């Protein structure tokens, strides 16, 4: 906790951290349950999700409409039977109604396959930007920094291709990605 804070500031700091941690929990649970309204509730209207580390040759970048981002996730997860995402915050930097948060990330993806292992795991961290809104803290930007993958990448490869197809189509349509 930052030094030289009044008791009121300390309480606000802890409440802000707790609310952001709750958003992270809904973010992960929404993806894993495929509850897209829960997932949507974590974000401001438009989002920036940096996918540079995903390994796409021509990954679209810049602001995305939330509907486009969710459609890309639906395409990705449609090929998976199960997933489990964990996002654990380790660093908060508050600046008024903005917060940059670093979180340890692990995503497990399961798809039964006749010709290989069914599990793929991605390990790294998220660097997220949160904004305080009238409805509480919401994510407005996220960068997924990949440290390594474990297991069989073929588990997620078709879904990644589908996801990229949605993002490319949005970019080519001239609308907000």
Q: Encode the helix/strand succession as letters.
A: HHEEHEEEEH
Main sheet attributes: strand count, strand direction, barrel closure: 6 strands, mixed
- CATH architecture name: Roll
Shape: globular
Mean pLDDT: 90
Strand tally: 6
In the CATH scheme, the class would be Alpha Beta
Total helical elements: 4
Give the proportion of residues in helices: 25-40%
Under CATH, the topology is which?
Nuclear Transport Factor 2, Chain: A
Strand order of the largest sheet: 2-1-6-5-4-3
User: Percent of residues in beta strands?
Assistant: 35-45%
Contiguous low-pLDDT stretches (5 residues minimum) are none
Radius of gyration: 17 Å
Cα(first) to Cα(last) distance is 38 Å
Structural class of the helix and strand makeup?
alpha+beta
| Count of spatially separate domains | 1
Q: What's the quick description here?
A:
The chain is of the alpha+beta class. It has helices at residues 7-33, 36-40, 66-77, 157-172, and strands at 43-50, 63-65, 82-95, 98-110, 119-133, 136-151. The chain is built from 4 helices and 6 strands.
């Amino acid at each position: 906790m930052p030094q030289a804070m009044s008791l009121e500031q300390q309480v606000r700091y802890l409440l802000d951290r707790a609310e952001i941690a709750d958003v992270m929990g809904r973010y992960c649970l929404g993806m894993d349950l495929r509850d897209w309204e829960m997932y949507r509730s974590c974000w401001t209207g438009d989002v920036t999700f940096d996918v540079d580390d995903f390994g796409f040759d021509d990954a679209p970048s810049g602001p995305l409409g939330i509907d486009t981002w969710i459609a890309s996730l639906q395409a990705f997860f449609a090929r998976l039977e199960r997933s489990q995402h964990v996002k654990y915050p380790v660093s908060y930097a508050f600046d008024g109604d903005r917060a940059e948060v670093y979180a340890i990330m692990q995503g497990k993806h399961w798809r039964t396959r006749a010709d290989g292992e069914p599990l793929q795991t991605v390990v790294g961290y998220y660097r997220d930007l949160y904004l305080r809104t009238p409805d509480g803290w919401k994510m407005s930007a996220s960068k997924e920094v990949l440290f390594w993958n474990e297991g069989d990448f073929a588990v997620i490869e078709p879904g990644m291709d589908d996801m990229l197809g949605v993002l490319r189509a949005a970019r080519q349509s001239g609308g907000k990605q």
